[in-house]
């Protein structure tokens, strides 16, 4: 997966210089010591800055020459949210960080061309453990960094992976630094007796971060005031005041993403920064009220709801141009709606870039009815399936391949959205509506193009499994 390592493009959260030094020092001390704890698990709630810490640590380890490989999972980012190519990506990174391992990894793949489709245990053994075993006497202790285990869609594989790591391998020349929320499938894997003695447990919520958040807020506001002087030209004194900064830090309650989102919301140019600061200071604590505030200020017309649904339910990142085509809108109309919530998302510099959420907690918020209430996104997969099917029916022509990324996305993902839609339905009446467009699709020339595209892209097995699951769900 080319965009999964610490050098990836797109959003990369990093710690502001001088912040999070206590927890980073503990991690670096663990990495530099010779002990029996070959795993370090950094856990913490959403928004506490785990990914920023992992990015910063990965860069430091790389600078010291002790980073073997890295993988940053990300929900909704295609291959970065899947386990399928995780092990082989680690092996690829290792082949470059430890050049002596290259011939052994290449030999393993050459001797067994089916290796990439074999079990996780076999891949880990033949692509990582065995190659490094051959060079063990010449290799120094190296670290493999894996962030956001909880954002991998395959919970069972993640639990099994942790189970493999705690097996009694002897003298491995690498350690694993892992980070995630303490989700049940992960916490249960680390609760096993085998994991207890070889794991260094670091709970991020145990570290006091209020001073770091105050430093972060001061730096961000100072930078924005200098970059956008017209927005703050009428202010007579230093803004925000020290008392306001302390109040914001207290309200953040350890959530760095809250602090970052507050700065973006207050300074997005849509309204008076002073008034917006007052709104934040008088609101309840936490991300949910802040997300609610941003959405309540947006012009929530039908097109806005359409765009918001798409960026939350997309199964992989696609460009603004492609997104617009899937939604049957213009790129300009999509960007116009996105600017309504620009303080909690990243809008690309041009239409060839993809929209990214500042933090996955925004997706969690919109998909949890008890949290988002009136903003709850109902039947998003149904909408995505309908839009994808409509695009194929209207655009795919016999004897022609899909001509752009939008059509490819529709071909590759419509059935997975349909499966999600059927799972989420509360009534057969709604299910009948979505199946009408499926029937249109099966009776037009787009069907043959789709079948050929699935075969060309070697997606036959996963697509057939999805269709069989849909059939099973419809029979219940």
Binned strand content: 5-15%
Shape: globular
* Unreliable stretches covering 5 or more consecutive residues: none
Helix/strand order, N-terminal first: HEHEHHHEHEHHEHHHHHHHHEEHHHHHHH
Biggest sheet overview: 5 strands, parallel
Portion of residues within helices: 55-70%
Structural class: alpha/beta
Overall pLDDT confidence: 88
The strand line-up of the biggest sheet is: 2-3-4-1-5
CA radius of gyration: 24 Å
Number-wise, the strands total: 7
If helices are DSSP runs of H or I spanning 4 or more residues, what is the number of helices? 23
How would you explain this protein's 3D organization?
It is a single chain. The chain is of the alpha/beta class and 476 residues long. It has 23 helices and 7 strands. It has helices at 21-32, 50-64, 86-97, 102-111, 120-134, 155-165, 184-190, 193-196, 210-227, 242-252, 256-266, 273-282, 287-296, 302-313, 320-327, 331-338, 361-366, 369-372, 380-395, 405-424, 428-442, 446-456, 460-475, and strands spanning 39-43, 67-72, 142-147, 174-180, 199-203, 345-346, 356-357. A 5-stranded parallel beta sheet has the order 2-3-4-1-5. The longest helix has 20 residues, at 405-424. The chain is globular. The protein starts with 20 loop residues before the first helix and ends with a helix. The model has no long low-confidence stretch (mean pLDDT 88).
In short:
This protein has 476 residues and is of the alpha/beta class. The protein is built from 23 helices and seven strands.
């Amino acid at each position: 997966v080319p965009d999964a390592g610490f050098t990836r493009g797109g959003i990369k959260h990093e710690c502001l210089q001088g912040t999070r030094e206590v927890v980073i020092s503990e991690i670096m001390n663990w990495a530099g010591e010779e002990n029996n704890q070959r795993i370090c698990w950094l856990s913490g709630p959403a928004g506490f800055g785990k990914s920023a810490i992992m990015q910063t640590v990965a860069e430091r380890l790389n600078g010291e020459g002790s980073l073997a490989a890295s993988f940053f999972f990300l929900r909704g980012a295609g291959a970065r949210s899947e386990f399928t190519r995780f092990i082989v990506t680690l092996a690829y990174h290792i082949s470059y960080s430890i050049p002596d391992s290259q011939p052994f990894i290449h030999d393993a793949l050459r001797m067994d061309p089916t290796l990439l489709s074999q079990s996780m245990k076999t891949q880990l053994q033949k692509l990582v453990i065995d190659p490094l075993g051959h060079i063990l006497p010449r290799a120094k202790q190296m670290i493999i960094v894996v962030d956001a285990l909880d954002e991998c869609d395959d919970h069972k594989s993640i639990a099994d992976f942790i189970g493999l790591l705690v097996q009694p391998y002897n003298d491995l020349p690498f350690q694993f630094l892992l980070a995630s929320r303490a989700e049940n499938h992960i916490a249960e894997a680390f609760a096993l007796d085998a994991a207890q003695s070889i794991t260094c447990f670091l709970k991020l919520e145990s570290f006091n971060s209020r001073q770091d958040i105050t430093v972060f807020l001061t730096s961000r506001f100072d930078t924005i005031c200098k970059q956008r002087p017209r927005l703050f030209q009428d202010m007579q004194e230093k803004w925000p005041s020290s008392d306001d900064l302390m109040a914001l830090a207290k309200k953040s309650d350890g959530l760095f993403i809250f602090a970052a989102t507050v700065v973006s919301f207050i300074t997005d140019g849509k309204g008076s920064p002073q008034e917006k600061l007052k709104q934040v200071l008088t609101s309840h604590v936490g991300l949910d009220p802040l997300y609610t505030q941003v959405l309540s200020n947006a012009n929530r017309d039908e097109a806005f709801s359409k765009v918001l649904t798409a960026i939350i339910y997309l199964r992989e990142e696609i460009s603004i141009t492609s997104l617009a085509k899937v939604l049957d809108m213009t790129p300009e109309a999509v960007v116009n709606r996105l600017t309504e919530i620009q303080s909690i998302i990243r809008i690309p510099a041009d239409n060839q870039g993809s929209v990214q959420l500042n933090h996955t907690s925004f997706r969690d918020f919109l998909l949890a009815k008890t949290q988002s209430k009136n903003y709850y996104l109902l039947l998003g997969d149904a909408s995505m399936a309908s839009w994808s099917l409509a695009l194929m029916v209207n655009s795919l022509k016999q004897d022609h391949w899909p001509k752009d990324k939008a059509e490819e996305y529709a071909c590759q993902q419509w059935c997975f959205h349909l499966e999600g839609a059927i799972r989420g339905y509360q009534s057969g009446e709604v299910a009948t509506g979505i199946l009408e467009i499926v029937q249109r699709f099966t009776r037009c020339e787009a069907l043959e193009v789709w079948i050929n595209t699935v075969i060309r892209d070697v997606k036959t097995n996963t697509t057939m499994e999805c269709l069989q699951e849909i059939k099973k769900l419809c029979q219940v």
